[in-house]
Amino acid sequence: MNDTPLSPKSAFWLGFRDMVPFLLIVVPFALLFGAVGTEVGLNIAQTMAFSILVIAGSSQFTALALMTENAPTFIVLLTSLAVNLRMAMYSAALVPHIGRLPLTTRAIFSYFLVDQTFAMSLNKYEANPGMTLAAKAGYFTGTFCFIAPFWYVFTLVGALVGAQIPAEFALDFAVPICFIALSAPMMRSLPHFVAAITSIIFALLFVNIPYNLGLILAAVIAMIVGAQTEQWLKNRTIS
């Protein structure tokens, strides 16, 4: 445990440097989103607006997948929101650390709250309980000042490249492949596997429900089954 005080400036550059390894994730995903976005019919400006306004890779790919299936707009929005609900849990976890910041600062931070900035910031805060509020704000600022520009720039690069790809080499297949790559690392325990299998089964059973509502129902059922499986394992451990 390191209780050495950090100045806001030092904390900023520490957060900036700590994000470097995430380039291995952010750059390929941004390139892929930009390319696939133009492949499914968005123009470059729309693809960029998507990345800048949403700045959430998983929900962006979710929206693209539904758009390729001609899902109604409200289903696209609802499903994307459901995917991003984890941000509410992220926010709650950060409240003890940066909840006393001014509202304007917190609003800005909420926009840049993504998996990487959350994970690195929370780990740093917990490992350094002596950090001041200003230092914590500086660290979080450093994380997103490094990672966000790469997301924007490489989305643009992907969109420009994707717009030049001939129709016979369409990248539509990349969306489901990307989701497999996103989902596979999350399969860390029995409840995860049970939830995943449940969602697959019910998504197939509900495939004929109008407006792709079957996907939402399958997700809800999978979450319930996964939670019950986790509770069953806890009870079994206690007993």
TrEMBL record:
Its main location: membrane. One of its GO terms (biological process) is L-valine transmembrane transport. GO terms for cellular component: plasma membrane. It comes from the Bacteria. It is a multi-pass membrane protein. The keyword Transport applies. The chain crosses the membrane at residues 20-42, 49-68, 74-95, 137-162, 169-187, 193-226. PANTHER family: INNER MEMBRANE PROTEIN YGAZ (PTHR34979:SF1). Belongs to the AzlC family. This is Branched-chain amino acid transporter AzlC. It comes from Paramylibacter kogurei. The lineage of its organism: Bacteria, Pseudomonadati, Pseudomonadota, Alphaproteobacteria, Rhodobacterales.
